[in-house]
Amino acid sequence: MAAPSGPLPGSFPNPFQDPALRANPYPLYAMLRSSNPVFRVPLPFEGPGVVILSRQADVESVLREGRVSVDRLRADVAQRFRAFLPPQFLGEGGPTRSMLMLDGVDHTRVRGLVNKAFTPRRVAALEGRIRGIVGDLIDGVRSAGVMDLMHDLAEPLPAIVIAELLGVPAEDHRRFKQWAADLVNALGTGGPLTRGPEFEAAFEALLGYLRGVIEERRASPREDLISGMIAAQEDRDALSDAELLANSFLLLVAGHETTTNLVGNGVVALLRNREQWERLRADRSLLPNGIEELLRYDSPVQATVRVPTEDIPLGDEVLPLGALVVCLIGAANRDPAAYDEPDRLDVTRERVQHLSFGFGQHFCLGAGLARLEARVVLDALLEHAPDLALIRDEVEYRPNPLLRGPQALPVSF
Ligand code: HEM
After folding, report:
1. At what angle do helices 287-297 and 274-282 cross, to 10 degrees?
2. Whose CA is nearest to atom 21 of ligand 1?
3. 103 Cα–ligand 1 center, Å
4. Distance 364 CA to ligand 1 centre (A)
5. What is the pLDDT of residue 175?
6. What are the per-10-residue average pLDDT scores of the chain (413 residues)?
7. Whose CA is nearest to atom 1 of ligand 1?
8. Domains contained in the chain, CATH given
9. What does 310-354 look like in DSSP terms, one character per residue?
10. I need a labelling partner for 160 at 20 to 30 A (CA). Which of 14, 262, 361, 372 fits?
11. Residue 377 in contact with ligand 1 by CB distance below 6 A
């Protein structure tokens, strides 16, 4: 395999570091869609490189495609810099062993076993508890009449819920939140290649913590998801310790920042389009559809990647074997070929088939939980904070452009 050479990818000019673009990437997406829908990123070395897809039909077809791998490390660009990756990233419990990075039968097997524990019933049973947590969080700031919606509501809620679901003590949720945020921020600002000490420390801390919980649950199971995953069996097959660790880690991290950003982006979108907030207030039965529209309008996950395992024709183009194909979900969701007036927020829009939870084999396992949490939070805000308003017009976004959401959101109510 090619030895590491040239500059680290993190030191390539990255347009998303521009705060103006982070605040509103949609004009750039529109330009890509119309003038360069299969965009080959210029790189200072030969090879299949990085290709960015921005049209809805192209993104969907690649996510449906069987001739691609989700294992990013198979991409030529990843192989070139493999030696720079932190060993924890590649080792036991690291994200490379989770279902998100497995293909074919390996993926089906692990996803099936996790699914046995992560049932819709287990999720639905959480509704009352989620209402309780949201009520407590709102009560905590009610008398002030102002809050940072991210810090006071959107961040703690999913952290508490996933911690409780997995069976890790809820008191630890702030620590989890910090570890998850450190990991996610490192991944967004150049990836694990440009990791700093926070990345390594967060990784080790989170893995060490989960190892302890798994050991405890093996010895004395409880009514939680980690115990459920330990017990899950299919034809006498079960998850190994490494798989348990990697997938607990995935659930903990995947369920945090994404749901936080759905709430944050959703509130920003509704308050900037006040008539849509009022529509939901007037008829809360529109909420489930409204949440799908909010997911489409400003997706918490802006992109995912695939690696072709052979040359794949796409229209007049070819996605080369070994390329890192970036599927721009955020751009696909605003494609005028798929939606009338895609830049308009409309909570009554019909047939909102966004790609914000992905598509195909790897469709988000936590979609039901994320939808439930978003519904409970927005319902509570519409009920208890009808005059909710942004205190500042500008919103500062988090550093990771792939996981899009406000850094802070001061609001009055
Ligand atoms: C609004 C919130 C969320 C969004 C936008 C979101 C988005 C996504 C997307 C786009 C994928 C597919 C990635 C790909 O195909 O490469 C995915 C997969 C996944 N998500 Fe979510 N997610 C959210 C919440 C959650 C929650 C709450 C959990 C769990 C507690 C979760 C667990 C997972 C898992 C385990 C996978 C991997 C599925 C597989 O590989 O088969 N997600 N999510």
Report:
1. 160
2. 364
3. 16
4. 4
5. 77
6. 43 63 93 96 92 98 96 90 71 74 94 91 92 95 95 92 83 75 64 62 84 91 91 85 89 88 98 98 98 98 97 96 97 97 97 96 96 98 97 91 93 97
7. 259
8. 9-412 (1.10.630.10)
9. S-EEETTEEE-TT-EEEEEHHHHTT-TTTSSSTTS--TT-S----
10. 361
11. no
pLDDT at 6 (0 to 100): 45
Q: What is the pLDDT of residue 14?
A: 59
Amino acid identity at 300: P
How many angstroms separate the alpha carbon of residue 181 from the centre of ligand 1? 16
Rounded Cα distance, 238 and 404, in Å: 35
Residue 250 beta carbon below 6 angstroms from any ligand 1 atom: yes
Q: Could you identify the residue written with the tokens 């990013």?
A: 72
Q: Which two tokens stand for residue 303?
A: 């992109």
The per-residue pLDDT for 56 is 98
Judged by DSSP in three states, 375 sits in: helix
Q: What is the pLDDT of residue 171?
A: 74
101 lines ligand 1 (CB under 6 A): no
Q: Cα of 95 to ligand 1 centre, how many Å? A: 13
Ligand 1 atom 34, closest CA: 365
Phi, then psi, of 326 in degrees rounded to 5? -95, 120
- Measure 231 CA to ligand 1 centroid, in angstroms: 23
Compute, in angstroms, the gap from residue 386 CA to the centroid of ligand 1: 31
Is the minimum distance from the CB of 255 to ligand 1 under 6 angstroms? yes
Residue 216: how many other CB atoms lie within 10 Å: 14
State the Cα angle at 252 between 246 and 253, rounded to 5°. Answer: 90
pLDDT at 261 (0 to 100): 96
Torsion of CA 363, 368, 372, 378, to 10 degrees: 20
